[in-house]
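2024-03-11 09:14:02 INFO receiving multi-entity request
2024-03-11 09:14:02 INFO entity count = two
2024-03-11 09:14:03 INFO echoing inputs for audit
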Amino acid sequence: AQRVTQPEKLLSVFKGAPVELKCNYSYSGSPELFWYVQYSRQRLQLLLRHISRESIKGFTADLNKGETSFHLKKPFAQEEDSAMYYCALGSFNTDKLIFGTGTRLQVFP
Amino acid sequence: GAGVSQSPSNKVTEKGKDVELRCDPISGHTALYWYRQSLGQGLEFLIYFQGNSAPDKSGLPSDRFSAERTGGSVSTLTIQRTQQEDSAVYLCASSLPWGPSGNTIYFGEGSWLTVV
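2024-03-11 09:21:47 INFO inference complete, emitting structure
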């Protein structure tokens, strides 16, 4: 069965500090992993996907199949990064996205 | 419209009443999802429609919940005999079929349901 685990409900850091939002997944096939973000009073939107190997707004995430993880990282957090972050798992076989419970990131000035 | 549209944006209903929530997906998107977002529960998958295939209803929490999608476009999520624990934001999303580079789903702004 597909499962996404985000162990932290809340992560608080000061501006300029490094950030790592954890995501672990369970899936027997070949997964596609995504990070979605929801800023205050905005709709949920895609931040990045593992297959693109991109850096968006300074965030990166590497798929580690050995550890079944897809942690989201940023070396220097900014106040505008404060938001709710969801890790999501999908695949061509299941053709749908399953989300984790989300982590709220608070970046203090 | 350019994005996923949901209505109503806010709904307050009395316990025991039925409610209908509507979703108008992005034109051309064959896949449509319903999720429920509540405090402490994250984003809970409810139901998924893909083209003419039978919907994946595996996330519906009880038989009080049902959804349909007419003509492969607009979808309605119906909650019968609402309970207070149904209070949440109901999110609709749509996408193209799964492709080689995965899939991006686009969310609506949600329907805030409060059961009193």
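2024-03-11 09:21:48 INFO post-check: Residues 20 and 73 of chain A are 4 Å apart (CA to CA).
2024-03-11 09:21:48 INFO post-check: The interface with chain B takes residues 6, 9, 32, 34, 43-46, 49, 51-52, 86, 90-92, 95-102 of chain A (CB under 8 Å).
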